[in-house]
Design a protein that fits this description.
The protein is α/β, with parallel strands linked by helices and 242 residues long. It has a single domain, classed as NAD(P)-binding Rossmann-like Domain (Rossmann fold), CATH 3.40.50. 44% of the residues lie in helices and 15% in strands. The chain has a seven-stranded parallel beta sheet with strand order 3-2-1-4-5-6-7, sandwiched between helices. β2, α2 and β3 form a beta-alpha-beta unit. The protein starts with a strand and ends in a 6-residue tail after the last strand. Bound molecules: NADP nicotinamide-adenine-dinucleotide phosphate. The site of NADP nicotinamide-adenine-dinucleotide phosphate has 27 residues, from α1. One of its GO terms (molecular function) is translation elongation factor activity.
């Protein structure tokens, strides 16, 4: 039987790259989305055709709503890996960040993923080797002005992985964070050409990452041979700060 992964944020650019790499590697997938069903429907249709022996399901959920989590987790049969690749940021001075913005960031990036880990831990423990991977951020390590709240919740993902990894190690589950620097996705559409040039000049590799270059490390962490690495944050930044 193929291994099954739940990809939270499979409709996003990094999530889609993860889904493509895992499907090609023989995984069955639960593909989560929030407002954009179309990218997930397309992935699902392609995968069903290309990989007829694997299963592909789509599921919608708003991570800022914790009330339906039991129903969502009860729908999943086998879960060998969970990838948290969803989330947005908020730009602006911290002084002007509202309570609602703070709550949404906390719920999306930390609280609901933590609640999902609680609900899926028994399924992950039944796997030969369970895997949890968060898509964190370089800002969780170094912090960024104008994204103070986002940097804080990204740092919290790394802190959670560090602690939870120790608690579930005896169940064969690893918990890690892949923390990208700047990735060429919708999230960075706000930057104009000048800002992107400035950003590139700060990155030793002189370019943004592709979603596939981030997904590569995520799929690598899901392998059996990656089992001795846990509680870590891998900075995939092209040599940029961390
Ligand atoms: N792009 C970068 O430079 C970069 C750098 C470092 C870290 N990251 C992190 O990488 C992850 C993925 O980012 P991306 O660049 O792939 O962004 P993206 O293409 O904008 O995708 C964002 C994903 O988050 C989902 N999402 C947004 N709000 C949600 C909510 N309330 N509930 C559930 N899902 C929600 C979106 O679902 P729908 O589209 O279906 O609504 C989508 O799947 C994020 O955690 C981000 O912080 C990105």
């Amino acid at each position: 039987m193929s291994r099954s992964a739940l990809i939270i944020g499979a409709s996003g650019d990094i999530g889609q790259a993860v889904a493509r790499q895992l499907a090609a590697a023989g995984w069955s997938l639960y593909l989560h989305y929030f407002q954009h069903a179309l990218p997930v429907q397309k992935l699902q249709a392609d995968f069903i055709q290309q990989y007829p022996r694997q299963d592909f399901f789509a599921l919608a959920y708003d991570l800022t709503d914790e009330t339906q989590l039991d129903q969502i987790s009860d729908q999943l049969f086998q879960v060998d890996a969970v990838i948290f690749a969803a989330g947005t940021t908020t730009y602006g001075l911290f002084q002007e960040t509202t309570t609602v913005q703070l709550e949404r960031l906390w719920e999306m990036h930390v609280k609901t993923p933590m609640l999902l880990c609680q609900r899926l831990s028994a399924k992950l423990a039944r796997s030969d080797y369970g895997r949890i991977v968060f898509v964190g951020s370089v800002y969780g390590g170094s912090g960024s002005p104008l994204e103070v709240a986002y940097s804080t919740v990204k740092g919290a993902q790394s802190a959670f992985a560090n602690a939870y990894a120790r608690e579930v190690a005896s169940q064969g589950i690893t918990v890690n964070v892949v923390a990208p620097g700047a990735v060429d996705t919708k999230m960075n559409q706000l930057f104009d050409a000048t800002a992107k040039t400035q950003l590139r000049s700060e990155i030793p590799l002189s370019r943004l990452a592709t979603p596939d270059e981030v997904a590569y490390w995520i799929q690598a962490l899901l392998k059996k041979d990656a089992g001795y690495l846990t509680g870590q944050t891998l900075y995939v930044t092209g040599g940029w700060r961390k």
